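Fill in residues.
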């Protein structure tokens, strides 16, 4: 049993659910060069064969879509079922998990993609790469990725809708960019976004796999407090919402914790104004992608990210050990010193190996330069 299956089993998933998820990920991870970028609107009629009898309705329809080379995900199919767009023998289906019987006729309606819900905005973007399927952005610190309470506009999604315009496909039934991973508001660096359903499915499967069986590189640079005793290591500690501070994440055990693994390596160490070890430059590679993962894991090791207002609060007094120039640079940074510096993946449509690197932004580079001077 692999790690994902073991985790699902521990959480009470049935063997059927585990097997269905594995098959769905396997299908989604195939290079979909021959698949449509977006399913065409209209009705599809399928008759259940003897071999297909007994399958879940959503799984049956997902397999029909895959056989027809349509990028229609199981998640999207469930949404269509919930919206009353699927009938079985002429009656609306309201349960994605119901079993179909041989000889039944299943009809699914795929509606026209709706207009984007967030509005497009003219927000400057640094584009590292773009084609018809996806776009790679070098995100600045301070830019929220997705609209949410308190950030209804001025987000990366608003910027992408404004930038991509009609080149966006109906991802999930709405013309919008497909967000498959995120960076915190005040974390800078590389982020890939899908423009088509094909790219969305392939990239979602890739990031769900976290590079364990599919090619994925996610490397960050972080300036952290102190100097670790070892030059490299791995933090394997589950992460979940903090028990009392709901805006924070924490290392937690038991059912509340989700598997989280971070590999880190020290690239440079720095001394303070008295000549004592005070900070390090660390490269972090993600094996999973939990909220605030690097920030939580580095704090868990006793070396939180410098400038982190949430997880490094207890280290504020250590700023007195920095040189005047380094302290001024840290104050000017005003955020966590964390940057998504390297991103590599297999293109979900062409299969081409893509890899991108991003230099440290000016504010983080200024802190690094000041630390080097001691």
């Amino acid at each position: 049993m692999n790690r994902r299956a073991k985790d699902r089993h521990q959480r009470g998933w049935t063997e059927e659910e585990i097997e269905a998820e594995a098959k769905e990920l396997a299908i989604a991870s195939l290079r979909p060069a021959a698949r449509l970028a977006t399913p065409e609107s209209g009705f599809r009629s399928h008759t259940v064969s003897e071999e297909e009898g007994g399958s879940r309705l959503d799984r049956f329809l997902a397999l029909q879509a895959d056989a027809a080379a349509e990028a229609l995900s199981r998640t999207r199919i469930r949404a269509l079922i919930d919206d009353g767009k699927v009938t079985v023998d002429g009656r609306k289906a309201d349960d994605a998990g119901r079993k179909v019987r041989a000889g039944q006729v299943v009809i699914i309606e795929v509606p026209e993609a709706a207009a984007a819900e967030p509005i497009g905005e003219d927000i400057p973007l640094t584009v590292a790469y773009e084609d018809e399927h996806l776009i790679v952005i070098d995100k600045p610190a301070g830019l929220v990725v997705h609209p949410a309470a308190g950030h209804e506009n001025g987000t990366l999604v608003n910027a992408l809708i404004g930038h991509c315009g009609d080149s966006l496909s109906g991802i999930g039934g709405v013309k919008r960019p497909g967000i498959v991973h995120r960076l915190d508001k005040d974390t800078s660096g590389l982020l890939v976004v899908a423009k088509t359903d094909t790219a969305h499915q392939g990239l979602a499967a890739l990031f769900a796999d976290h590079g364990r069986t599919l090619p994925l590189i996610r490397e960050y640079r972080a300036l952290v407090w102190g100097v670790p005793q070892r030059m490299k290591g791995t933090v394997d500690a589950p992460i979940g919402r903090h028990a009392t501070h709901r805006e924070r994440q924490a290392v937690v055990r038991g059912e509340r914790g989700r598997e989280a693994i971070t590999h880190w390596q020290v690239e440079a160490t720095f001394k303070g104004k008295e000549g004592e070890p005070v900070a390090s430059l660390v490269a972090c590679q993600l094996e999973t992608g939990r909220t605030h993962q690097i920030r939580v894991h580095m704090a868990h090791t006793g070396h939180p990210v410098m400038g982190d207002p949430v997880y490094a609060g207890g280290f504020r007094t250590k700023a007195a050990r920095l040189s005047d120039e380094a302290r001024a640079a840290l104050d000017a940074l005003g955020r966590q010193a964390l940057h998504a510096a390297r991103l590599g993946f297999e293109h979900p449509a062409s299969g081409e190996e893509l890899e991108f690197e991003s230099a440290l932004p000016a504010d983080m580079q200024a802190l690094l330069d000041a630390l080097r001077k001691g």
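The longest strand covers residues 261-271.
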